[in-house]
Write a structure and sequence with these properties.
Blueprint: H1 3-8, E1 11-13, E2 19-21, H2 32-45, E3 51-55, E4 61-65, H3 67-79, H4 83-86, H5 88-91, E5 94-97, H6 101-113, H7 120-132, H8 137-144, H9 148-155, H10 162-169, H11 175-187, H12 195-208
Parallel strand pairs: 2-4, 3-5
Antiparallel strand pairs: 1-5, 3-4
Helix pairs in contact: 2-3, 7-10, 8-9
Length: 214
Amino acid sequence: MTKQSIIAADEARFPLSKLSLSSMNPRQNVPAAEVEELAESIWTAGLIQNLAGIMDGNGGAEIVAGGRRLRALQLLAERHADLAQVRPELANPPVRLAPDDSTAQAWAVAENAARRDLHPADEIRAYGKMERNGATPATIARAFAVTEKSVYRRLALAGLPEAVIDALAANEINLSAAACFTGIVKLRGISIAGTRGHDQTQAIWGLFRPSLSC
């Protein structure tokens, strides 16, 4: 597959080693049981719905829609060393390629809006990213089929350090604790926006995390 053919094509096949999950994909956390179930389905019935992504500049693609399917395919590759021989269509899945970042982002939002609820940490990251890219709370609410009030609640936490959101994603803390931490930061007169505020909140997180229970 030449570079020219990739650019001209709307769809191309890639070996799984050349595929990765894009940061545009809102669903960064997927329960292992879901991946297991989907892997069994794909093994039996095949890949019914193709992946969608954007070229990564290294001959591969970053998947913006179909993250669960990608994980399931990767699981099958781990379990079947001869996947390329016995199921070549799964070892080299077709990927619909977006022509630009804005299209890729739209695909990611469209697919995930129709899927089961996102983890709160994924919502915080996804909504925050869309806001940084210029989307209004109303636009975000329409894209994810949620209320503006819900969007505002998540955006209030979007400036938290990654360590805090990671802890939320791992279910080490809940939304109440994350909101409580935000309150602690505000009481200290620190903005969670900007580099200086980020560094300060990281330091406070390290201090309060062992006993944070609000």
